[in-house]
Amino acid sequence: MADAPFDVVGVGNAIVDVIAQSDDNDLARLDLNKGTMTLIDDAQAEWLYSEMNAGIETSGGSAANTLAGIASLGGRGAYIGKVRDDQLGTVFSHDIKAVGVDFPVRPATEGPSTARCLIFVTPDANRTMQTYLGVSVMLGPKDIDPETIGGAQITYLEGYLFDRDEAKEAFVKAAELAHAAGRRVALTLSDPFCVDRHRASFRHLVEGHVDIVFANHDEITSLYETDSFDDAVGKLVGKVDIAAVTRGADGSVIVTANEVVEVAAEPVEKVVDTTGAGDLYAAGVLYGLTQGYELSVAGRIGSICAAEVISHYGARPEVSLMDLVKEKLG
Predict the structure, then answer these.
(1) Where are the domains of the chain?
(2) CB 7 within 8 A of CB 73
(3) For residues 115 and 15, is the Cβ–Cβ distance under 8 A?
(4) Is the whole-model pTM more than 0.70?
(5) What fold does the segment set 6-13+61-111+135-329 form as a domain?
(6) Distance in angstroms between the alpha carbons of the first and the last residue of the chain
(7) Calpha distance 210→157 (Å, rounded)
(8) 204-249 tens-digit pLDDT
């Protein structure tokens, strides 16, 4: 729908990422479970931050990373997420606007501080994340701006946010506003632990309010409590129009009721940090869908974007994705 002022609006946890190189000895010393994402409280966040090696601070959050990718591709994006009027809140607001994403939400003046994710990256490119969600999870229905949602071709909902009842209500409100405006709704399942915690609610959301789902192998099989990838995909496609499922080095598959598109992973000279791979894959696919590309092309753009972000530290692209895609697609 070309009349939309935005291609995609994302709704998610507004988080500042602190990324530091570490090793297995660091993880053992700090009693961290390698390769997982763990929620921590304010005190734990302060302690771990003091124990980290020197790091890079950059605004992050899954859906925000996706919107940054869409902007780098030349797409028009907006983002809805909650920050405090503190130092990290200022960092987040500045970064998201600086990459060309509209951010209409005013900082909260009370409550917990801005969220942060402490990311320990080991030499094997594995990431171990310790996340303090702070004020980000306080997002509720009142934060969902009808004009922004109605003005986007696709509203993209981040599963990581799906914890408090207010957030669930915000998701439903956003989906209903989008559909009332004749728009589409996409959801990323984000992480198997999210699905395990909220399986029934996720299924209800998927079956009643979502058109496009992004997931990986573990998330989709958890959603439908089956060991069979094909069985899980089949059940999901019966509920949504498009399922885009990533499989790491094996690429991805995009499935509709009438089509199964196998997408190869884009070659990467060296995998440095897998942070943001799924987020940037979603950016490429969403961009492709909003520009009217075939699913195979949208999937290829997703693979190109994911390959770029895993070739360096950090969850945001370091080069123009628009130029990169033009070069790769010819």
Answers:
(1) 6-13+61-111+135-329
(2) no
(3) yes
(4) yes
(5) UDP-N-acetylmuramoyl-L-alanine:D-glutamate ligase (3.40.1190)
(6) 26
(7) 9
(8) 999 999 999 999 999 999 999 999 999 999 999 989 999 999 998 8
